[in-house]
């Protein structure tokens, strides 16, 4: 095996610019070469190991020669790379130099037609681009026009993902400046269809894939990721993607989309974000039979094998990135979501957006709704349709907030909350068959099988849907809610749009324009009796980007329920009387960066108050500090 060391020195002056390369071969011989432009290096494991370099001009010993019938071209084939036969493995060993073609293909630094004349000369771009120089704003305008030309949402999604892979800053500027228009494209509902078709639209990997094949080697896999200063990880096992079920490895679209929003809405640096899919198989028969499926074609691992893989993953994350990297669990099935959160929350910095994030944004909507309905949370009754991780997570946070406001125990606060699952109202008579996280909401009452019967019996102020059963809020259900309440609160939270419990138009029409409506997926404004209603979207994107930013800037080492409550209260406080007059229970997404900064400040303040923050000293003005830490996508000038 050849012993190799290399030193790259760039020389730049008015007379010459290029690279000095110091090479040492197996026999100890050292050669010094000069090149105007280094293209790439390679290390070849075939034939006992060979090392070489190719350059554009001026390489010492460069001359065309024929060795064993092979034309070696302009570089002396000192180590036999050109003579390697097809059955000899050749492993490329690359050092990227940010100039020329390599610069144009680096999404973090590529500016396309915005490279200035000086930059084009300094970085060997002359001739590689058309002569015009465009501003970033003009680039953005052109791309937005291009995106709008696509009528199919999935085509828009693919166009934006292509942009992200070739020009990172332009992608985020486009998304930030047009967030209300493009959020449904890069995330729900379009991302659901993208995950379903991920195998056929797959172009290049956008995150890390950790499968059962890597068991025992997860730390090694993490070290393959080029970025080392990771602050936020979003991880899924793909078992419960939105309301679409088990999509296996193709669930990667969710972590990628979530982290795009962490950057665009929360200002977390793109290089500090890592999307991960843990592939333990899939029970989706269609995917197992799909020749284009990109994951393991086997049934899901469960039990000890699954648990050991997750343990190894969490241990490897801490070992590689430290204890202050936030791990967000995303779209795990109920039976794993609660278990993983309970298992790791005491010793790791973890957050489950489906449980805690959804709960925070819904609680914020309920608090804001009371500005119109009146009273406190403790004065009202809440009925949940759906008792999975989202439903019970929301219920638990609402109960915690009621207990804080009313100065009662959480057990007492839970009496204001009722749940309906697939078998009907959850009551104590069903305790023998209930999962542990449902038992705490089993109250004394006669069994009721259907939602309409539960509404008539419980007489709730708010009806909250998270079951993923489309159109389950029927006309009869909403009319019953409207007969009980002057301003019924109707939250149809299930995603994507096809799984929503009702549409905005149905809620407003069937309640005769009296409903306070919110949904998980976006709906267009509705005109009823000459009044325009603007549906509120209870989107987790209100919470998790700002929450994550607050964790990062404070250096928090744990996530607590108090921090989640702080995020919910921070969001509710930004709902003004003007918003309420328009029927909005959330502030507009057009000011989402301001919203995220305020939520980050609330979360960070709570972390400092609880002694969980490690970023010291504590900033005097946390809102300004959060804003100063946020990533901005404006182009930088290159030397």
Alpha plus pi helix count? 25
Q: Biggest sheet, open or closed, and with what strands and sense?
A: 7 strands, mixed
Morphology: globular
Let me know the average pLDDT: 87
List low-pLDDT spans: 1-20, 32-82
Q: Give me the secondary-structure category.
A: alpha/beta
**How are the strands of the biggest sheet laid out side by side?**
16-15-14-17-18-19-22
Domain Malic enzyme N-terminal: 164-345
Active site: 187 (proton donor), 258 (proton acceptor)
InterPro entries: Aminoacid_DH-like_N_sf, Malic_enzyme_CS, Malic_N_dom, Malic_N_dom_sf, Malic_NAD-bd, Malic_OxRdtase, NAD(P)-bd_dom_sf
Domain Malic enzyme NAD-binding: 355-608
Architecture overview:
Helix content is 38%, strand content 15%. With 639 residues, it is an alpha/beta fold. The strands form six sheets. Strands 16-15-14-17-18-19-22 form a seven-stranded mixed β-sheet, sandwiched between helices. A five-stranded parallel β-sheet has the order 9-11-10-12-13, with helices on both faces. It has a three-stranded antiparallel β-sheet with strand order 1-2-3, with no helix packed on it. Helix 14 (353-373) packs across helix 15 (389-406). The radius of gyration is 28 Å and the shape is globular. A divalent metal cation binds at residues 330-331, 354. It catalyses: oxaloacetate + H(+) = pyruvate + CO2. The active site is at residues 187, 258. Belongs to the malic enzymes family.
